[in-house]
Amino acid sequence: MIQNTPKQWDLEADVVAVGSGAGGLTAAITAADHGASALVLERWYRTCNC
Q1: Torsions phi, psi of 8, nearest 5?
Q2: What is the pLDDT of residue 7?
Q3: In this structure, what are the phi and psi dihedrals at residue 43, rounded to the nearest 5 degrees?
Q4: Does the global pTM surpass 0.70?
Q5: What percent of the chain has pLDDT over 90?
Q6: Distance between CA atoms of residues 14 and 31, nearest Å
Q7: With helix as H, strand as E and coil as C, how does the chain read?
């Protein structure tokens, strides 16, 4: 199911949103607006499960 998985991953973020639905994207945008680094993880190839 998961493709192109790196062997090692060392990315850091202040806020990690699991899923790109309304809540995840809102959290990431709000965090970025307040100066935090944000990362959105999504298993589907499109955002918002559209």
Answers
A1: -135, 140
A2: 83
A3: -90, -20
A4: yes
A5: 50
A6: 8
A7: CCCCCCCCCCCCCCEEEECCCHHHHHHHHHHHHCCCCEEEECCCCCHHHC
- d(C-alpha 43, C-alpha 3), whole Å: 10
- What is the mean predicted confidence (pLDDT) over 22-31? 95
What value, to the nearest 5°, has the Cα angle with vertex 16 and ends 12 and 19?
A: 135
- Per-residue pLDDT of 4-26, as tens digits, reads 777 888 889 999 999 988 999 99
First and final C-alpha spacing in the chain: 19
And the tokens for 39?
């990362």
- Domain map of the chain by residue range? 15-49
